[in-house]
């Protein structure tokens, strides 16, 4: 796929919040597109609207006005349940704080999106459920989660819970969790912001490698100038500078 092929597009996007009846404008007239294999950095100071934009791109929030078009579908036309199904099948999220479930192992955390997807399939009658089939599907999910964890270098840590993993290992589990559904788009909100420099660089390099090998679009919100510089050098890289809710370059 040519990375110039549009996967995701926003058209004249606005987002406002109200605090004590005072309107706070988080985004003002954002129009951009993301290519199917592109690496895009959304860069700017705190309060520029970076995370707000990322959440809207991934369908976690809705704009006040304007359009978000994902694979030729206007997200505004989708119901809450349709939007949830799209997120769970097409979009992988990675956050600054990994949000792993502490009572589950690395393998189980990575399996979680697949298990959620299965519950949607069952709810909408896409297949009939039976005990033998459930066991077979669980084994398949375990194999897929193991494959992804091996790919991010955690094959020997699959049975460890988050508290037994280093910060870098926890974030790699979060990366594996985002990838296990084989999404078209990966959205990362300050994915190295809670890591030391060396570990952050390793996670960043992992994301770029997975972008190259798996041919997924990758959008990273960051205030790390070094990461932005590296993304700007990539053949498929692009940097979007935000300030006060507007694209300035």
Can you characterise this structure?
The chain is α/β, with parallel strands linked by helices and 249 residues long. It has a six-stranded mixed β-sheet with strand order 6-7-8-3-9-10, with helices on both faces. It is built from seven helices and ten strands. It has one domain (6-247): P-loop containing nucleotide triphosphate hydrolases (Rossmann fold), CATH 3.40.50.300. The model is unreliable at 124-136 (pLDDT under 50). The chain is globular. Strand 7 (185-189), helix 6 (197-214) and strand 8 (217-222) form a beta-alpha-beta unit. The protein is 39% helix and 27% strand.
Per-chain topology:
Layout: E1 6-19, E2 22-35, E3 39-43, H1 50-57, E4 65-70, E5 73-74, H2 80-90, E6 91-95, H3 106-123, H4 131-151, H5 167-179, E7 185-189, H6 197-214, E8 217-222, H7 225-233, E9 237-243, E10 246-247
Parallel strand pairs: 3-8, 3-9, 6-7, 7-8
Antiparallel strand pairs: 1-2, 1-4, 4-5, 9-10
